[in-house]
Design brief:
Layout (H helix, E strand, L loop, with lengths): L5 E2 L10 H11 L6 E2 H4 L10 H6 L21 E3 L2 E2 L5 E5 L29 H9 L5 E5 L8 H12 L6 E6 L1 H4 L2 H4 L3 H9 L5 E6 L9 H12 L3 E8 L7 H13 L4 E6 L13 H12 L10 E6 L2 E9 L2 E9 L8 E5 L4 E4 L5 E3 L23
Helix pairs in contact: 5-8, 10-11
């Protein structure tokens, strides 16, 4: 049994030299560091480009002024403390402001900055909102990581949702099966509790976050099987990340390996332009080409993922290329007039995101001179930009 100790000081990471620790301290003063012994044990410290290292170990590139704190403008859709209601039938509960580790590319890193108050200690108002909004048929428990809540606290949230007749699906967004599968393996009450509430027309889904095949260990596999035996359904989503899974062979291997364990690939997301994330970003054309090449290495069961941008206006799928045009389509939408809307953007080779009006935002220093929208660094106690 692997007892995984959590580490929150970069100085305590034994794989780093004293010089590296000193340089990275100024990064972690802004964007906190969190890891655990299990996940750090997956790193090949002799390889400076090790993908697990890139996921969890800070980089000085995070200090580059680029992007926003809330790139998808989630604040607009916050309807109660800890509750977002963006799409008619879906609500999001921000249940926790802690993860098993802190991904350096996290799109909600604003939750972990000192002084952040977006995640409430009490979700009563959020649950009351969902209870009276009968159009909501599925709820995503996220944060932070829902599976890092105590089993009792998580059960109180799930029980409240299960008692609402109109809520048919409860999803838990979690990277804990990659970060520390012993959360599942060492607490037999957790999968049993989830199994009690996962039943016909009231299904519990775990949305896993495996970003790279190295994260799928024997311990992760056992945790997956433990949850599946209890009737929990699993599916995986990941951003497409430069230096981590942007090789088609790597991404294809991730899709295939997950399918072998019965965890279908769900969404692959364009990396959001969040403050400090530029080093992980790819152009839309690069992302599309990598994604399609990876899918071509997979069976039908492993190639069900959609490549999408979780945009302020909705979930926009990257569908196809035609000449110098990238074809995009709304899969989820905020405005009714965007339902099923298809459009294209030209010359997508250095486009990384779209603004509010769906105008391309381009990388500075590439072929376009157009500058991306940036916000200045907040002080650690400041509100999101």
């Amino acid at each position: 049994m692997y007892k995984s100790r959590y580490i929150t000081k970069i100085e305590a990471v034994s794989g780093l030299s004293p010089e590296e620790k000193a340089r990275l301290k100024r990064v972690t003063d802004l964007f906190p560091f969190r890891a655990n012994e299990y996940y750090l044990s997956l790193i090949d410290w002799s390889d400076p480009d090790d993908p697990i290292r890139r996921i969890v170990i800070p980089s000085e590139s995070e200090l580059e002024v680029w992007g926003k704190m809330d790139a998808s403008n989630e604040a607009t859709y916050t309807v109660a403390p800890g509750c977002e209601h963006k799409y008619t039938d879906t609500a999001i509960l921000l249940s926790n402001q802690v993860c098993g580790c802190f991904c350096r590319f996290c799109f909600r890193k604003r939750l972990f900055i000192k002084g952040a108050k977006e995640v409430p200690s009490d979700l009563t108002q959020a649950l009351d909102y969902i209870k009276v909004h009968k159009e909501i048929n599925n709820v995503l428990i996220t944060g932070g990581d829902g599976l890092l809540l105590s089993t009792n606290k998580l059960e109180r949230i799930i029980r409240a949702l299960s008692e609402m007749d109109h809520v048919k699906v409860i999803r838990i967004g979690s990277k804990i099966l990659a970060f520390n599968p012993y959360r599942v393996l060492d607490d037999p009450e957790l999968p049993k509790m989830l199994g009690r509430y996962s039943r016909a027309r009231k299904q519990i889904y775990i949305m896993t976050h495996f970003n790279h095949p190295k994260e799928i260990t024997s311990a992760s596999a056992r945790a997956i099987e433990r949850l599946k035996r209890e009737g929990v359904v699993l599916a995986n989503q990941t951003p497409l990340l430069k230096g981590i899974n942007d090789d088609p062979s790597t991404l294809g291997a991730l899709f295939n390996e997950l399918s072998y364990f019965g965890v279908p690939p769900y969404y692959v997301f364009i990396n959001r332009p969040v403050l400090g994330n530029r080093d992980f970003s790819l152009s839309l054309k690069e992302a599309y080409d990598i994604f399609e090449s990876a899918r071509n290495q997979c069976s039908g069961l492993a190639k069900r993922a959609r490549l999408a941008m979780s945009h302020e206006s909705g979930k926009i799928e990257l569908v196809a290329t035609m000449g110098d045009q990238l074809i995009m389509k709304y899969q989820r939408f905020v405005r009714q007039q965007d339902q099923g809307r298809t459009f294209s953007i030209g010359d997508p080779d250095d486009v990384y995101w779209l603004d509010k009006r769906l105008n391309p935002l381009r990388f500075e220093g590439r072929r376009s001179e157009t500058k991306s929208t940036v916000c200045q660094y907040p002080l650690p106690q400041a509100s999101p930009c």
